[in-house]
Design brief:
Chain lengths: ~55, ~250
Amino acid sequence: MSDVGFVIAGYGVILGGAAIYAATLVRRLRAAREASLRIREQAEQAPPVDRTA
Amino acid sequence: MKTRILGIVGLLAVIGASVFGLFVVPADLNQGDAQRIMYPHVASAWLGELSFGLTALAGIGYLWRRDLRLDAVAHAAAEVGVLFTAFAIWGGMMWGRPVWGVFWQWEDPRLATTALLLALGIGYLLLRRLTDDPARRATRAAVVGVIAALDIPIIHFSVIWWRGLHQGATFGDPAKILHPSAPGLFVIALMGMLSAFTIVWCYLMIRRYQLARLDWQMEEHGRLGRISAARRAASVPSPAAEEPAR
């Protein structure tokens, strides 16, 4: 195979980059879901607002 | 669960298309093995342009309907578009060095306009960080998204309008789609890689859209929380106010 270095670099960065991005996205999504759940629980536990004041 | 299955299918499809492009398809007579980089390069370029086209369409939709879900689609497409455009540029550089003798040439209109699209995409993402107001952010981003998308037809026709290093459009002539001049295996490899990348693109788009929606909902919760806290603070008299004047 000729120009092996360029072929490996081309495929490696593209496929590796897509894999890293997908993994990061899944991790960010999981963290956001956990944070969203936490905020919802805190909102449910918070005392009601006195709107008459 | 369905999205996870889509991701697994995309992963397997990309592995299959890469093995086919790297080991099954013969090397090009003139370009040698460097030609194999064309498969992910062309697929990335098409999907990058598709992403920014979607950003513009969703942005126009937002300006029309003022629906923040459309802004989330535009945001997701822009981020994925930046990724695939960067891949297209990288693949082109890795192919260009052994075939053209240079990694990059600014004088080439297709290279320069593609770099401009990447810069506009990054600018779009940076612009979104300038304000916390969702409506203002979405409006500004929609305008920039539409401006960025104006570059897509310029990229496509740049090889026809101006002279440069880059070869003509891969499927510029509609007749070529049905009767391509390239050997059948090359076309199958390209179409296989494009299909595999499209599945991965769909997966990334869904995941990024879900993240954009969650981010927006959390922002909204945070805003409501601050309003509630302010109201609560206003309704409870402070100790200083209760203390009798001396």
